[in-house]
Specification:
single chain; mainly alpha; 83% helix; transmembrane helix; MFS; MFS transporter; cell membrane; transport
Length: 401
């Protein structure tokens, strides 16, 4: 019989995705301020988001494997410490150096390494703690997902409010949040002792290869949707942040509140979808179809309404609604249709795939905003319809996916 999991343990686990979400999304409304303070271009400011994500992309699968070998907590604790150090590097460089941009990027890379070993490891950790109780595990995962989505809503407001005081305070805030989470994890998460010897690396690779051989068709579609939705989300947030400040003169906390509106819609949609999926592949497939259809139809219009804040906010909120419904659906498809022995590995690879979208979104928008943004958004909409065709082709409820 499992020991009861304390409320503080659940809070500690939920704090990890909250910190990691704040650590990235909190900086999006501040990027135009960074451009002014550091005398850098929009493309250079977008790298502050991108290098974080690129670092995480390559480290997440390694962190997942290490957590199987040496334990979840032994990976999470130093990862949070790295996130803390990265924030200090970026913040102190902003205060004490004349040209801190390179040091800020170095700090963000360290934070990306920390993100790789923290948030993605929470999912298999929950499985370890509730190994014999799927219902409680699902409930705990729901709390953690709520924490993640709440972080998305909170981040633009917090980032804008802190930067309004002094522009480099958000870097130090990331370190402070990481320290709080680190203390919670260290003292309140008690992991069960290992029973089975983890697989050797060669076996690990063979098992992963076999999983992709058997399940690859629909898994590749799921990964593609993950990349696409996160690319669109972060591209639109970057675009919206830039347009509000530079064209409409809206900055500070007011801009943060406006940016939080589509994210709040995303959060609500995510919670509602998560509650109603119930392991039904027909429902999951329908959510993906409707969500991708909505994205494909609406994304091209974003570039034509940059002068109308209300219409822009309506469009981005509807796109947020689609993304919010899609993301928990993708999570459920992987966790409920992959054997437990391979679930952690596939989840880690899926997390890396999503970070590709996060990394690509801001710099692509910064490039196309100079010229050809409307054409790029039309192409993005067409891409959504292309992925929709793949859903019809490779994700079928009649098959044992």
């Amino acid at each position: 019989m499992n020991k009861p999991i304390s409320t503080w343990c659940i809070i500690s686990m939920a704090s990890i995705p909250l910190v990691m979400t704040l650590g990235n999304s909190m900086l999006i409304p501040v990027l135009p301020i960074f451009e002014k303070q550091l005398n850098i271009s929009s493309f250079q400011s977008s790298l502050i988001i991108t290098v974080y994500s690129i670092a995480a992309i390559f480290l997440i699968p390694i962190a997942g494997y290490l957590s199987d070998r040496i334990g979840r907590k032994k990976v999470i604790v130093p990862s949070l410490l790295l996130t803390l150090i990265g924030g200090l590097v970026a913040g102190l460089a902003s205060v004490f150096t004349k040209d801190p941009f390179i040091w800020i990027l170095i700090g963000r890379v360290l934070q990306g390494f920390g993100a790789a070993g923290a948030a993605p490891i929470v999912l298999p950790l929950v499985g370890d703690l509730y190994k014999d109780d799927d219902e409680k595990a699902s409930s705990c995962l729901g709390i953690i997902e709520t924490s993640n989505t709440f972080g998305k809503v909170l981040s633009p407001i917090v980032g804008a409010a802190l930067a309004a005081i002094i522009w480099h305070i958000p870097f130090f805030a990331i370190s402070a949040f990481s320290l709080i989470s680190l203390i919670f994890v260290f003292f309140f998460i008690k992991v069960p002792k290992e029973k089975d010897e983890p697989p050797e690396f060669k076996t690990f690779l063979q098992n992963t290869k076999e999983t992709f051989k058997q399940e690859g068709n629909w898994l590749y579609v799921v990964f593609g949707i993950g990349i696409y939705t996160m690319l669109v989300l972060f591209a639109i947030l970057f675009f919206l942040s830039d347009i509000l400040e530079k064209q409409h003169g809206i900055d500070g906390v007011k801009k943060g509140i406006i940016l939080a509106i589509p994210l709040l819609v995303l959060c609500i949609a995510s919670l509602m979808a998560g509650k109603n999926i119930k392991g039904d592949l027909i429902i999951m497939r329908m959510i993906l179809i409707i969500g991708l259809l909505l994205m494909g139809l609406l994304i091209p219009f974003v570039g034509f309404f940059e002068n109308n804040v209300r219409v822009l906010l309506l469009l981005t909120s509807l796109i947020g609604l689609a993304i919010g419904a899609i993301l928990p659906t993708l999570d459920a498809m992987i966790t409920e249709n992959i054997d437990k022995g391979e679930r952690g590995t596939i989840t880690s690879i899926y997390s890396s795939a999503r970070f590709i979208g996060v990394a690509a979104g801001p710099p692509l928008v910064s490039i196309f905003m100079q010229e050809g943004l409307s054409v790029a958004l039309i192409i993005a909409g067409i891409l959504g319809f292309g992925i929709l065709v793949c859903v019809f082709t490779f994700i079928k409820p009649t098959e044992n996916n």
